Amino acid sequence: MENYQVAIVGSGPSGASAAFHLAKAGIKSIVLEKETLPRYKVCGGGLVYRGKKDMPFDVTSAVDITFHEVDVYMGKNLHFKTHRDQPIVSLVMRDAFDKLMIEKAQEHGVTLLENCKVIALSSSKNGVMVETNQGTLQVQQVIAADGVYSQLAKMAGWEKDTRTLIPALEYEVEVDPKNFERLSKEIRFDIDAIPGGYGWCFPKKHHLSIGVAIIQKLKDEQKIKAYCAKYMQFLGIDEIVDIKKYGYQIPVTPRLDGFVKNNVFLIGDAAGFADPLTAEGISNAILSGKLVAKAIEESKGDLKKAAANYSKIIENTIMPELLTSMKLAKLFYSNKTVRKFLLKKYGQRFSEALTDIFMGEKNYPKNVNEKIKEKLKELVF
Ligand SMILES: Cc1cc2nc3c(=O)[nH]c(=O)nc-3n(C[C@H](O)[C@H](O)[C@H](O)COP(=O)(O)OP(=O)(O)OC[C@H]3O[C@@H](n4cnc5c(N)ncnc54)[C@H](O)[C@@H]3O)c2cc1C
After folding, report:
1. Could you list the residue range(s) of the whole structural domain that residue 353 is in?
2. Based on the domain organization, do 271 and 185 belong to the same domain?
3. Ligand 1 mean position to 365 CA, how many Å?
4. Binding site membership of 161 for ligand 1 (Cβ less than 6 Å)
5. Do 11 and 117 fall within a single domain?
6. 60 and 119 housed in the same domain
7. Ligand 1 mean position to 12 CA, how many Å?
8. Tens-digit pLDDT profile for residues 134-144
9. Quick check: pTM over 0.90?
10. Which of 20, 269, 278 to mutate to test the pocket of ligand 1 (most atoms within 8 A of CB)?
11. Measured from the CA of 152, which atom of ligand 1 is nearest?
């Protein structure tokens, strides 16, 4: 194989974003992808505005529908609606979206090798030897963008997985025209559609992406399929024309033992960068791809500096947000009574705050615990 400075493994949003920014910086890179594009990825495909506005190119051609309003429900009686002038969520099918992203990187000179599975990594004098099913290549750095089940992390020396992985189901459901008309008018989140988590119904061009995620670990996780079936009943879906059912995991806490080892950099789900409260992972996948490219570019070929740059940049940007969101998620999902109590009184404010975060207009509040305790005191006394 030709000579490249960086090998990016995985062509999801994190890998494609890293590839795009490296190419723009003039760094010779190759993307190794085990599948052939376009490929299906289990995902609701909800691209929040925070992620969309961070994109360095227009993604309209890969967007099915945009929503300027978001509906948050808790059971049948609590309903909160937020509205923004810009689209809060753009709904995409990941096969088209990921393909568009990688094509944009290719336009800037990145090489894409499909059907290319990385099977081993080893340290070499000037970087890393990458063994694939199509041969071996020597690079200075490897970016592991290989998703939640990252084998690259294991190969590079992360022996223990310190992320929290949560189960999630995604059903691609074609319903009868009457139900499609009714349910495709809104993008909805149903808190408590599943114990310790939430459900969603995301309309796409011709079908609905319906799913559930268990954010707070449950003893009876095996019941997740039954919960999803119940959620579809709750949505009033009585006629299914076609259904494809998928199960996958989402990493909702970051790794605790660093994001760079032996010139291998972890980004996106491989690093554990999905948001702990919402399980939304596309934005931070895109952002971490951009940040790793910046760290490598600014190191000007100094391998140690690139590693130090990336660690520092993540500690200062993504990590503080994730740590606060982790606290909020623990409070929010662990106690149903407190959650209902707070949402009854502050549900609209909570939905507005979450929408501001989706829009990238606000960060998570730093003193979450104190703020919630304050609100509880106000309510009780
Ligand atoms: C059910 C469900 C619903 C979700 N809904 C949303 C949502 O609505 N909005 C949102 O923001 N996030 C959502 N997420 C999270 C989101 O899907 C992920 O956070 C995001 O895909 C992470 O991107 P990534 O680039 O890190 O990894 P991925 O998108 O998983 O891409 C990894 C790529 O690496 C390739 N690969 C893996 N191993 C190898 C190898 N050894 N060699 C070569 N290639 C390899 C894979 O084929 C794949 O293309 C959801 C997740 C799930 C499970």
Report:
1. 322-380
2. no
3. 27
4. no
5. yes
6. yes
7. 6
8. 999 999 999 99
9. yes
10. 269
11. 41
